[in-house]
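User: Write out your own:

AI:
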Amino acid sequence: MQTYLSSLSALHSADMQAADSIRGNRPVRRDPVTTIHPLIRVNPVTGWKSLFFNPGFVTKIVGVPKLESDFLISYLNEVIATTNEIHVSFEWRRDDVAFWDNRICVSRFPSTSLSCLMFTDVGTQNHSATYGFAPHRRHAVRVATQAEKPYYSADGKSQEEELNAKYGLPAGNKDCSGVGNYND
C-alpha cells in the first residue's frame, strides 16, 4: 500500500470550508485555494517520508477512477481516525504553548486539545482539539509559516527503518507475521 500511495497525488481544496462559512453566515477569512500535491511527501529536514493527507481538504486522488479515489480517501480517513498507535495527545495547562511541524501534521475534524499521529513507516501527524477543557474557556491562536512546495522523492527514508537501525531493533514484518516491535 505504501508503494502504491507513493505513486499518487491528491487534490487538496478549501472550497468546502469556504462554502460552509458562507452557509453559516461566517466570514471567509481568505480565498479558498485548490492544489495538487503528492500523497506521500519527504520532509526536507529529516528526509523521512510522510503521508500528506488532510481529511477535511483532500477531495480526490488524481489519476485513478472515482470509485478508487473515494475508497482511498475513505480508507485514509479511517486510518487517521481509528489507529490509536499513531496518535500523541497533549494535555493543555495554563500558559502552555505547543509547536508541531505542519509538513507532517494534518487537521482532523472536528477541529476543536492537541492530538498528533505518527505512522510508524510512512509518518504523518494529526492535530485536533477536543472538548476536555470545560468549564474553562479555550483560546488558541494559530501561527503558520510558509514552507516549501511539498515533494516526493524515492530517496526519502523510512522513519521506522532509520530508528530500528539506530536502536538495533529488528525490522517488523508488514504482513503482521513474525517480528513485531510492539509490546502489547
About this structure: Strands lie at 9-13, 34-38, 40-42, 49-51, 58-62, 87-90, 105-107, 114-117, 125-127. Residues 86 and 118 are 4 Å apart (CA to CA). Residues 107-126 have pLDDT under 50 and may be disordered. The radius of gyration is 18 Å.
